[in-house]
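User: My collaborator sent over this chain with a note saying "see what the structure looks like." That's all I know about it. Can you take a look?
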Amino acid sequence: MEETTVKREGLFSRLNGPPAQMLIIGGVVLVLLAPLIPSFKTARVVRAQTALEQVSALIEVDVEPLRRTQLREEKDDVAEAQRDRATPLDYSLGPEDVQRQQQARQARAMAREQRERQREKALEDKLEELKTKHDANDRKRSLLVAQTSAAGMRWHLFLLFLGNAMLLVGLLVLTLESDGPRQKVLLVILLVIMFSALSGVNLTFFTSGTLGNDSSALERMMKTP
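Assistant: Without extra context I'll predict from the sequence alone. Here is the result:
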């Protein structure tokens, strides 16, 4: 029993002073640094998402003149089709004239269908051209890579655990090797740090502005298509 006590006192005595202070400083640095790492990943996702949204906005701006032109053409075709439906065939004429009227109407309907297909193809070609021009696929790929990287990141939790452990060990050494009022103050600090570590509440007010890591924004961005 006496040998065990001597070994324990000798260990804490060797850690007292500068080693304990270094443990506390290192622990504080890691505890404050760990919540910043997800913020860097979140910033990367936000940057990639903003770049993709800018590309989409530029494509919409560039394709708008073509859409307006096609809309006018569609209105003209709709008006022509309505006129054909509203105008009955003149059966007072001969059979050949009635047949020519029917053929003319069919030709106009086929022409409208052809123009509609041409408009659709022209719009698709224009969109593909603008996507290539603004590197839309590369921007989308960058966003997916950033989202995957942020979603799979867990090593900052190890840094947080290591920082809490170093902080607790350093405070424990100073508490046991102190006496009087100083020991009481250190004991209160140790209990607060231990409670926060065990309950999962990270005292990172100065880095994240909240208790612990606020991952709600990152989770919302992970759901963004």
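A starting point for your reply to your collaborator: Residues 16-222 form one domain.
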